[in-house]
Amino acid sequence: MNLPLRLKRGGDPLPTEAAPAQRKHAQQRLNLRLKLGIAILAVFVIGSFVLPLFATVDPTRQGTYLKNMPISGQHLLGTNALGQDIFWFLVLAIRNSLLLGVAVSLGITIISTLVGLSAGYIGGWYERIVMLVIDTFITIPVFPILIVLSALVRGNNSFFLIGLILVVFGWAWGARTVRSLALSLREREFVNMARFSGASTFDIIIREIFPYVYTYTVVHFINTILFAINIEAALAVIGLSKVEVPTLGSIIFWALNYNALLIGQITWIVGPIAATVLLFLGLFLVSTGYNELFATRRGVA
Questions:
Q1: What are the residue boundaries of the structural domains of the chain, listed by start?
Q2: pTM of the prediction?
Protein backbone atom coordinates (compact mmCIF):
# COMPACT_ATOMS: atom_id res chain seq x y z
CA MET A 1 0.00 0.00 0.00
CA ASN A 2 1.40 3.39 -0.96
CA LEU A 3 1.86 5.84 1.87
CA PRO A 4 0.69 9.42 1.38
CA LEU A 5 3.64 11.75 0.84
CA ARG A 6 4.44 15.23 2.02
CA LEU A 7 7.30 17.48 0.95
CA LYS A 8 10.02 18.33 3.40
CA ARG A 9 12.50 21.18 2.97
CA GLY A 10 14.48 20.62 -0.17
CA GLY A 11 11.56 19.05 -2.02
CA ASP A 12 12.17 15.40 -1.07
CA PRO A 13 9.05 13.36 -0.38
CA LEU A 14 8.62 11.98 3.15
CA PRO A 15 5.96 9.37 4.09
CA THR A 16 3.68 10.90 6.72
CA GLU A 17 2.68 7.51 8.15
CA ALA A 18 6.18 6.14 8.67
CA ALA A 19 6.74 7.44 12.19
CA PRO A 20 3.27 6.48 13.50
CA ALA A 21 3.69 3.02 12.00
CA GLN A 22 7.03 2.61 13.74
CA ARG A 23 5.56 3.75 17.04
CA LYS A 24 2.64 1.35 16.67
CA HIS A 25 5.04 -1.50 15.93
CA ALA A 26 7.10 -0.61 19.03
CA GLN A 27 3.97 -0.63 21.19
CA GLN A 28 2.94 -4.03 19.85
CA ARG A 29 6.39 -5.43 20.59
CA LEU A 30 6.29 -4.14 24.17
CA ASN A 31 2.71 -5.27 24.66
CA LEU A 32 3.76 -8.79 23.72
CA ARG A 33 6.14 -8.89 26.70
CA LEU A 34 3.47 -7.56 29.01
CA LYS A 35 0.83 -9.97 27.70
CA LEU A 36 3.18 -12.93 28.07
CA GLY A 37 3.89 -12.01 31.69
CA ILE A 38 0.19 -11.54 32.45
CA ALA A 39 -0.58 -14.91 30.84
CA ILE A 40 2.02 -16.68 33.01
CA LEU A 41 0.76 -15.00 36.17
CA ALA A 42 -2.86 -15.75 35.25
CA VAL A 43 -2.06 -19.45 35.02
CA PHE A 44 -0.43 -19.40 38.45
CA VAL A 45 -3.08 -17.26 40.14
CA ILE A 46 -6.14 -18.96 38.66
CA GLY A 47 -4.64 -22.43 38.99
CA SER A 48 -3.50 -22.01 42.60
CA PHE A 49 -6.83 -20.57 43.76
CA VAL A 50 -9.26 -22.63 41.69
CA LEU A 51 -7.65 -26.08 41.57
CA PRO A 52 -7.66 -26.61 45.38
CA LEU A 53 -11.46 -26.49 45.20
CA PHE A 54 -11.35 -29.79 43.31
CA ALA A 55 -8.95 -31.57 45.68
CA THR A 56 -10.61 -34.65 47.15
CA VAL A 57 -8.31 -34.80 50.20
CA ASP A 58 -6.24 -32.34 52.23
CA PRO A 59 -2.90 -32.02 50.35
CA THR A 60 -1.05 -31.35 53.61
CA ARG A 61 -2.17 -34.55 55.33
CA GLN A 62 0.59 -37.14 55.50
CA GLY A 63 0.14 -40.82 54.67
CA THR A 64 -2.82 -40.22 52.35
CA TYR A 65 -1.24 -42.22 49.52
CA LEU A 66 1.48 -44.81 49.10
CA LYS A 67 4.93 -43.31 49.40
CA ASN A 68 7.23 -42.46 46.49
CA MET A 69 4.80 -43.43 43.75
CA PRO A 70 5.83 -42.52 40.18
CA ILE A 71 4.08 -40.09 37.86
CA SER A 72 0.71 -41.39 36.72
CA GLY A 73 -2.74 -40.28 35.68
CA GLN A 74 -3.83 -40.28 39.32
CA HIS A 75 -0.70 -38.52 40.58
CA LEU A 76 0.53 -36.03 37.99
CA LEU A 77 3.87 -35.49 39.76
CA GLY A 78 3.89 -38.68 41.82
CA THR A 79 3.85 -38.84 45.62
CA ASN A 80 6.57 -37.97 48.11
CA ALA A 81 8.14 -39.81 51.02
CA LEU A 82 5.45 -38.41 53.31
CA GLY A 83 2.61 -39.98 51.34
CA GLN A 84 1.42 -36.68 49.88
CA ASP A 85 0.47 -35.92 46.28
CA ILE A 86 3.24 -33.64 45.01
CA PHE A 87 1.05 -31.87 42.45
CA TRP A 88 -1.68 -30.86 44.88
CA PHE A 89 0.86 -29.90 47.53
CA LEU A 90 2.65 -27.71 44.96
CA VAL A 91 -0.59 -25.99 43.94
CA LEU A 92 -1.30 -25.13 47.57
CA ALA A 93 2.29 -23.96 48.07
CA ILE A 94 2.09 -21.56 45.11
CA ARG A 95 -1.11 -20.06 46.52
CA ASN A 96 0.42 -19.50 49.96
CA SER A 97 3.60 -17.98 48.51
CA LEU A 98 1.57 -15.63 46.32
CA LEU A 99 -0.61 -14.56 49.24
CA LEU A 100 2.45 -13.81 51.36
CA GLY A 101 4.18 -11.96 48.51
CA VAL A 102 1.17 -9.79 47.67
CA ALA A 103 0.40 -8.98 51.32
CA VAL A 104 4.00 -8.00 52.09
CA SER A 105 4.32 -6.03 48.86
CA LEU A 106 1.10 -4.16 49.52
CA GLY A 107 2.26 -3.14 52.99
CA ILE A 108 5.72 -2.09 51.81
CA THR A 109 4.37 -0.15 48.82
CA ILE A 110 1.79 1.78 50.85
CA ILE A 111 4.28 2.74 53.57
CA SER A 112 7.14 3.63 51.22
CA THR A 113 4.89 5.68 48.93
CA LEU A 114 3.22 7.70 51.69
CA VAL A 115 6.46 8.31 53.60
CA GLY A 116 8.46 9.16 50.47
CA LEU A 117 5.83 11.51 49.03
CA SER A 118 5.30 13.35 52.30
CA ALA A 119 9.04 13.75 52.96
CA GLY A 120 9.75 14.95 49.44
CA TYR A 121 6.93 17.48 49.35
CA ILE A 122 6.91 18.82 52.93
CA GLY A 123 10.69 19.09 53.29
CA GLY A 124 12.30 20.94 56.18
CA TRP A 125 12.79 19.33 59.56
CA TYR A 126 10.20 16.64 58.74
CA GLU A 127 12.21 15.49 55.73
CA ARG A 128 15.46 15.43 57.75
CA ILE A 129 13.91 13.23 60.44
CA VAL A 130 12.32 10.90 57.88
CA MET A 131 15.58 10.57 55.94
CA LEU A 132 17.42 9.73 59.18
CA VAL A 133 14.92 6.92 59.84
CA ILE A 134 15.09 5.73 56.20
CA ASP A 135 18.89 5.64 56.18
CA THR A 136 18.87 3.76 59.49
CA PHE A 137 16.59 1.04 58.13
CA ILE A 138 18.56 0.83 54.88
CA THR A 139 21.75 0.04 56.76
CA ILE A 140 20.07 -2.87 58.61
CA PRO A 141 20.54 -6.14 56.66
CA VAL A 142 17.14 -7.79 56.33
CA PHE A 143 18.10 -11.41 55.75
CA PRO A 144 20.43 -11.80 58.78
CA ILE A 145 17.78 -10.15 60.98
CA LEU A 146 15.21 -12.64 59.71
CA ILE A 147 17.56 -15.55 60.35
CA VAL A 148 18.20 -14.43 63.94
CA LEU A 149 14.53 -13.77 64.72
CA SER A 150 13.39 -16.99 63.06
CA ALA A 151 15.98 -18.96 65.01
CA LEU A 152 14.81 -17.37 68.28
CA VAL A 153 11.15 -18.22 67.70
CA ARG A 154 11.69 -21.45 65.79
CA GLY A 155 8.61 -23.60 66.06
CA ASN A 156 6.42 -20.62 66.96
CA ASN A 157 7.01 -18.38 63.96
CA SER A 158 4.20 -17.77 61.51
CA PHE A 159 3.48 -16.25 58.16
CA PHE A 160 2.21 -13.15 59.92
CA LEU A 161 5.48 -12.70 61.81
CA ILE A 162 7.64 -13.24 58.73
CA GLY A 163 5.47 -10.89 56.68
CA LEU A 164 5.53 -8.23 59.40
CA ILE A 165 9.33 -8.35 59.63
CA LEU A 166 9.63 -8.08 55.85
CA VAL A 167 7.37 -5.01 55.84
CA VAL A 168 9.18 -3.35 58.76
CA PHE A 169 12.63 -3.77 57.20
CA GLY A 170 11.68 -3.58 53.52
CA TRP A 171 10.01 -0.19 53.02
CA ALA A 172 13.05 2.10 53.23
CA TRP A 173 14.54 1.72 49.72
CA GLY A 174 11.21 2.45 48.04
CA ALA A 175 10.61 5.46 50.29
CA ARG A 176 13.97 6.94 49.37
CA THR A 177 13.26 6.61 45.66
CA VAL A 178 9.75 8.06 45.94
CA ARG A 179 11.10 10.95 48.01
CA SER A 180 13.58 11.75 45.22
CA LEU A 181 10.76 11.79 42.68
CA ALA A 182 8.66 14.05 44.90
CA LEU A 183 11.58 16.46 45.32
CA SER A 184 11.74 16.94 41.56
CA LEU A 185 8.01 17.67 41.40
CA ARG A 186 7.27 19.89 44.40
CA GLU A 187 8.50 23.11 42.72
CA ARG A 188 6.65 22.50 39.46
CA GLU A 189 4.20 25.15 38.37
CA PHE A 190 1.11 22.96 38.69
CA VAL A 191 2.04 22.13 42.30
CA ASN A 192 2.52 25.81 43.14
CA MET A 193 -0.82 26.59 41.51
CA ALA A 194 -2.55 23.97 43.64
CA ARG A 195 -0.82 25.31 46.76
CA PHE A 196 -1.84 28.91 46.05
CA SER A 197 -5.41 27.83 45.33
CA GLY A 198 -5.71 26.59 48.91
CA ALA A 199 -5.40 22.82 48.40
CA SER A 200 -4.34 20.89 51.47
CA THR A 201 -1.01 19.08 51.72
CA PHE A 202 -2.73 15.71 51.51
CA ASP A 203 -4.69 16.74 48.38
CA ILE A 204 -1.55 18.01 46.66
CA ILE A 205 0.38 14.84 47.47
CA ILE A 206 -2.38 12.48 46.33
CA ARG A 207 -3.89 14.41 43.40
CA GLU A 208 -0.96 16.36 42.00
CA ILE A 209 2.23 14.43 42.78
CA PHE A 210 1.17 10.80 43.13
CA PRO A 211 0.03 10.40 39.47
CA TYR A 212 3.62 11.11 38.41
CA VAL A 213 5.06 8.36 40.62
CA TYR A 214 2.26 5.88 39.96
CA THR A 215 4.23 3.93 37.36
CA TYR A 216 7.19 3.51 39.69
CA THR A 217 4.78 2.41 42.44
CA VAL A 218 3.29 -0.33 40.24
CA VAL A 219 6.73 -1.60 39.18
CA HIS A 220 7.96 -1.46 42.79
CA PHE A 221 4.89 -3.39 43.94
CA ILE A 222 5.58 -6.19 41.46
CA ASN A 223 9.29 -6.34 42.27
CA THR A 224 8.54 -6.45 46.00
CA ILE A 225 6.41 -9.57 45.47
CA LEU A 226 9.56 -11.20 44.09
CA PHE A 227 11.54 -10.00 47.10
CA ALA A 228 9.04 -11.38 49.64
CA ILE A 229 8.64 -14.79 47.97
CA ASN A 230 12.40 -15.12 47.55
CA ILE A 231 13.18 -14.27 51.19
CA GLU A 232 10.53 -16.62 52.56
CA ALA A 233 11.71 -19.42 50.28
CA ALA A 234 15.31 -18.92 51.40
CA LEU A 235 14.27 -19.07 55.06
CA ALA A 236 12.16 -22.17 54.46
CA VAL A 237 14.98 -24.01 52.67
CA ILE A 238 17.20 -23.62 55.73
CA GLY A 239 14.32 -24.60 58.02
CA LEU A 240 13.67 -21.21 59.63
CA SER A 241 10.24 -20.53 58.17
CA LYS A 242 6.93 -22.22 58.96
CA VAL A 243 7.88 -25.38 57.06
CA GLU A 244 4.66 -27.14 58.07
CA VAL A 245 2.77 -24.68 55.84
CA PRO A 246 3.04 -25.45 52.12
CA THR A 247 5.18 -22.86 50.33
CA LEU A 248 7.61 -23.05 47.45
CA GLY A 249 10.45 -23.00 49.96
CA SER A 250 8.99 -25.57 52.35
CA ILE A 251 8.59 -28.14 49.54
CA ILE A 252 12.28 -27.83 48.75
CA PHE A 253 13.08 -28.10 52.48
CA TRP A 254 11.24 -31.42 52.84
CA ALA A 255 12.60 -32.72 49.53
CA LEU A 256 16.17 -32.03 50.66
CA ASN A 257 15.51 -33.55 54.09
CA TYR A 258 14.25 -36.78 52.55
CA ASN A 259 16.93 -36.88 49.81
CA ALA A 260 14.45 -36.66 46.96
CA LEU A 261 17.14 -36.97 44.29
CA LEU A 262 18.66 -40.09 45.84
CA ILE A 263 15.33 -41.91 46.17
CA GLY A 264 14.38 -41.04 42.58
CA GLN A 265 11.61 -38.48 43.33
CA ILE A 266 13.01 -35.81 41.04
CA THR A 267 9.66 -34.05 40.62
CA TRP A 268 9.54 -33.41 44.37
CA ILE A 269 12.42 -30.94 44.12
CA VAL A 270 12.34 -29.99 40.43
CA GLY A 271 8.63 -29.12 40.53
CA PRO A 272 8.86 -26.23 43.03
CA ILE A 273 12.09 -24.96 41.47
CA ALA A 274 10.52 -24.87 38.00
CA ALA A 275 7.38 -23.22 39.40
CA THR A 276 9.48 -20.59 41.18
CA VAL A 277 11.45 -19.80 38.03
CA LEU A 278 8.28 -19.47 35.94
CA LEU A 279 6.59 -17.33 38.59
CA PHE A 280 9.59 -15.02 38.80
CA LEU A 281 9.73 -14.86 35.00
CA GLY A 282 6.07 -13.85 34.83
CA LEU A 283 6.52 -11.12 37.45
CA PHE A 284 9.68 -9.87 35.73
CA LEU A 285 7.96 -9.70 32.33
CA VAL A 286 4.99 -7.82 33.77
CA SER A 287 7.28 -5.38 35.60
CA THR A 288 9.57 -4.58 32.68
CA GLY A 289 6.78 -4.76 30.13
CA TYR A 290 4.60 -2.29 32.01
CA ASN A 291 7.54 0.04 32.59
CA GLU A 292 8.54 0.07 28.92
CA LEU A 293 4.95 0.35 27.76
CA PHE A 294 4.44 3.42 29.91
CA ALA A 295 7.70 4.93 28.63
CA THR A 296 6.61 4.31 25.02
CA ARG A 297 3.20 5.88 25.59
CA ARG A 298 4.79 8.89 27.25
CA GLY A 299 7.14 9.26 24.30
CA VAL A 300 4.29 8.99 21.83
CA ALA A 301 2.24 11.51 23.75
A1: 97-247+287-300
A2: 0.81
